[in-house]
């Protein structure tokens, strides 16, 4: 997980991966340079979920999820029965099969995120990249999505996720990077990296870490006693 703190404007850290790749090095997927791969080949390895996604057309949920099979089809080819089975499996895996025939544009923000995740799972990628996937979700849907992501990682999917919420590191990650304005503050296990000192450096406020159990802590920001000259 990448915990981001940005106070200079601009995009988050995941949005600058291509820019840094162009300047400083190369990206390899299973030993192959990404520059040598077609978009379809990359899409078979990497699934990407943006912060939010709203379709301009009233596709059904099933149609949106089935679009995940596009890397395996040519321009004139229609989805096969096998592709439809994979899409249905993704819907059932995430517990949203009952949404199959609903219009995607009529769903709540939490439902849309789950549908888009199902679409990405239908790609059958090795790597899942999520750009602040909980940023537009309510508290309950945040936890539900993080638990789903955690289960997917346990099933063997490599997950790279960004978040502005340091608590999320204890819910859904094995390695954490804290970054501020595109510069690395620390990297390692959540318990070693998400510390009061690192959070103060990232956010310029005092933060107390409260231990709930051996593997779980919560981050409590302290009031800054800000005074306004009104």
What does this structure look like?
The chain is α/β, with parallel strands linked by helices and 230 residues long. It has a domain at 2-7 and 29-163: 3-Layer(aba) Sandwich (Rossmann fold). It has nine helices and ten strands. The protein is globular, with a radius of gyration of 19 Å. It starts with a strand and ends in a 9-residue tail after the last strand. The model has no long low-confidence stretch (mean pLDDT 87).
Any low-confidence stretches, pLDDT <50, length ≥5? none
* Estimated structural class: alpha/beta
How many helices? 9
User: What is the second-level CATH architecture of the domain at 2-7 and 29-163?
Assistant: 3-Layer(aba) Sandwich
Say what oligomer this is.
single chain
User: What's the main sheet like?
Assistant: 6 strands, mixed
* Gyration radius from CA atoms, angstroms: 19 Å
**CATH superfamily membership of the domain at 2-7 and 29-163:** P-loop containing nucleotide triphosphate hydrolases
């Amino acid at each position: 997980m990448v915990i981001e703190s940005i106070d200079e404007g601009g995009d988050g850290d995941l949005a600058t991966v291509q820019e840094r790749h162009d300047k400083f090095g190369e990206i390899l997927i299973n030993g192959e340079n990404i520059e040598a791969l077609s978009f379809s080949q990359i899409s078979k390895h990497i699934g990407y979920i943006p912060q939010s996604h709203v379709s301009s057309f009233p596709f059904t949920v099933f149609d949106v999820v089935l679009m995940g099979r596009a890397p395996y089809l040519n321009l004139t080819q229609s989805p096969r029965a096998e592709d439809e089975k994979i899409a249905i499996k993704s819907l059932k895996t995430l517990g949203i099969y009952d949404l199959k025939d609903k219009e995607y544009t009529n769903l709540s923000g939490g439902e849309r995120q789950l549908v888009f995740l199902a679409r990405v799972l239908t790609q059958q990628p090795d790597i899942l990249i999520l750009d602040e996937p909980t940023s537009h979700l309510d508290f309950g849907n945040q936890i539900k999505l993080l638990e789903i992501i955690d289960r997917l990682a346990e099933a063997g999917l490599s997950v790279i996720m960004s978040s502005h919420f340091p608590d999320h590191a204890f819910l859904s990650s094995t390695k954490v990077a804290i970054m501020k304005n595109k510069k690395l503050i620390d990297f390692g296990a959540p318990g070693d990296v998400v510390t009061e000192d690192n959070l103060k450096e990232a956010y310029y406020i005092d933060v107390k870490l409260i231990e709930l159990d051996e593997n779980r802590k919560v981050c409590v920001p302290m009031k800054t006693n800000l005074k306004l000259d009104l």
